[in-house]
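ARCHIVE CARD
CATEGORY: sequence design from structure
SOURCE FIELD: tokenized fold
FIELD CONTENT:
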């Protein structure tokens, strides 16, 4: 139960966090100095402390809850009625970072209000006036409130921007001048409807944990879809007349040629959402009804995770560490597009990135910037291919080389030779299993004796969706499922979990929330080295690796299914090729 708002002894946020042992007096003083700097006027102390990395929003919410006695709430678990939503508009809720989510059980005239800063007296006073209710304060994080506002007001706000844009066009504002202004980068024009609409779409994608945004033109409509946990979901549909302006805005911000409409283009941009910087790769493709845009979202810090966050089991983590400890050789990470290869590579590089080594990468494109690593972007037009960049890199005295992808024989041969001459090379390939990777390189024309000498380990990986903790349910496996799971004892009782795809706030009715990596790690042992040198088939190589303790991808996913982390549907979806 939340507590009614009352004017007790006024504590300051800094005092509360110091009393709770989360920050020191010195850190609060530094943050207060930072707050006074030009450009930071109007920023709350809490936001400054979070930005400086002294405290997380979760820690701040917990401290405020303990010290002020307000209960915490998770808005993703709350269903807000239309009556409550109509009490306030989106802009005022965003301004104060508050979200009403229901009426008190004790008193119908008392509104439950989630706040990230309950010490903001002006916010409390204004919300009481606007809603005409007394408030029962609950505490949550700013991110939770932003996601809730987005969930309940986001589409309406986007539709409002779209209508405003259409209205401006109808009012015969000189179209060419208007478009140029609306898509330009001038901060004075940031209130233009189309600028706000593009920003709104990106923010909504971030709050819904999307990895990609698809903006697709059709004959009479413009469809926007988000890829969430690997699956595309339609989010909004607009009138096709918005298409030209949205495309122009995206092209200018991502550095593309605004006049070129017949050729595919690539660009990149950054966006700040909830005070976190996102890197967005933009791809433009001409279709029969106009240009389609796909925007790939990456949290700047998101690709360089701690290796413990990648989802390795203890056994797999030990193997991963052993492979990374090699001073020279090739380490290959394989899997289809969107299987988390880049995250694994960047995590490995971050671990190897010490002052004593020179790391150079060649990528197409560079997905994330890492301090202390020299990153080269392929530019085919300028003649800078993977192969030509690699030749130059070898004259740059590197210790570790990362190749974004081995695509052809020339790149493969240079990589192999570089690893034999004392460099550690890490790269990716698109193959289905660890053993197939070796035969793929041999098919590219690399001599098997060179492969045997250079490859130290292969990691094949996939991402499986985690079943929703709130709406999934347990059931008993039938005979067919036991057979698929490789359980020979038909009398054995096996309990599995299934996704429900029902109206659940935690997973938005998808049945799944979040994904985790599953891995097949093949360490190249002396016996495997011999098999590779003899040019054995992928099946024969896999058989030896299994004998030496390798777990297949399918076997790893089966373990996740039996542990109740994922479902039989995911097992079938991810290991269709096996």
């Amino acid at each position: 139960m939340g507590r009614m708002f009352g004017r007790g002894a006024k504590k300051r946020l800094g005092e509360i966090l110091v009393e709770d042992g989360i920050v020191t007096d010195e850190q609060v003083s530094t943050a207060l100095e930072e707050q006074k700097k030009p450009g930071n006027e109007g920023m709350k102390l809490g936001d400054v402390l979070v930005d400086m990395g002294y405290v997380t929003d979760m820690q701040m919410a917990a401290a405020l809850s303990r010290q002020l006695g307000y209960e915490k709430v998770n808005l993703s678990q709350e269903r807000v009625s239309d009556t409550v939503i109509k009490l306030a508009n989106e802009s005022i809720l965003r301004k104060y970072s508050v979200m009403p989510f229901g009426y008190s059980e004790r008193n119908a005239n008392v509104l439950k209000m989630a706040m990230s800063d309950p010490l903001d007296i002006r916010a409390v006073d204004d919300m009481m006036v606007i809603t005409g209710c007394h408030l029962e304060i609950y505490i949550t994080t700013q991110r939770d409130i932003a996601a809730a506002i987005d969930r309940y007001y986001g589409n309406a706000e986007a539709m409002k921007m779209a209508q405003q844009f259409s209205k401006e066009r109808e009012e015969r504002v000189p179209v060419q001048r208007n478009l140029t202004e609306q898509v330009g980068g001038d901060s004075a024009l940031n209130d233009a409807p189309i600028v706000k609409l593009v920003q709104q779409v990106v923010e909504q994608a971030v709050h819904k944990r999307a990895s990609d945004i698809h903006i697709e033109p059709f004959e009479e409509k413009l469809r926007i879809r988000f890829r969430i946990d690997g699956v595309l979901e339609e989010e909004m549909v607009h009138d096709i007349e918005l298409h030209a302006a949205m495309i122009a805005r995206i092209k200018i911000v991502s550095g593309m040629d605004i006049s070129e409409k017949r050729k595919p283009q690539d660009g990149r941009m950054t966006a700040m959402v909830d005070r976190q910087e996102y890197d967005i790769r933009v791809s433009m493709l001409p279709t029969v009804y106009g240009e389609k845009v796909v925007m790939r979202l990456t949290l700047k810090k998101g690709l360089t995770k701690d290796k413990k966050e990648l989802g390795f089991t203890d056994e797999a983590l030990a193997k991963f560490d052993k492979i990374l400890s090699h001073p020279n050789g090739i380490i290959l990470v394989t899997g289809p597009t969107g299987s988390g290869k880049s995250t694994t590579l960047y995590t490995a590089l971050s671990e190897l990135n010490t002052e004593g080594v020179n790391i150079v990468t060649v990528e197409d494109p560079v997905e994330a910037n890492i301090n202390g690593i020299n990153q080269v972007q392929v530019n085919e037009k300028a003649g800078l291919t993977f192969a030509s960049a690699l030749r130059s890199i070898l004259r740059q005295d590197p210790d570790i080389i990362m190749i974004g992808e081995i695509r052809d024989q020339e790149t493969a041969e240079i990589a192999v030779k570089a690893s034999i001459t004392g460099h550690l090379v890490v790269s990716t390939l698109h193959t289905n299993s660890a053993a197939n990777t070796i035969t793929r390189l041999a098919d590219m024309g690399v001599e098997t004796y060179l492969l045997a000498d250079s490859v130290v380990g292969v990691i094949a990986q996939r991402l499986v969706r985690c079943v929703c903790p709130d709406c999934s349910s347990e059931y008993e496996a039938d005979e067919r499922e036991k057979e698929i799971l490789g359980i020979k004892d038909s009398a054995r009782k096996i309990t599995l979990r299934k996704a429900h795809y029902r109206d659940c706030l935690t997973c938005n009715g998808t049945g799944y929330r979040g994904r985790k990596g599953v891995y097949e790690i093949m360490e190249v042992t002396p016996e495997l080295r011999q098999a590779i040198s003899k040019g054995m088939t992928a099946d024969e190589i896999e058989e030896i690796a299994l004998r030496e303790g390798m777990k297949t991808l399918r076997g790893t996913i089966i373990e996740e299914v039996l542990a109740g982390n994922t479902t039989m549907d995911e097992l079938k979806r991810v290991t269709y090729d096996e």
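CARD ANNOTATION: Residues 142-170 form the longest helix (29 residues). The chain has 22 helices and 20 strands.
SHELF: design records, drawer C
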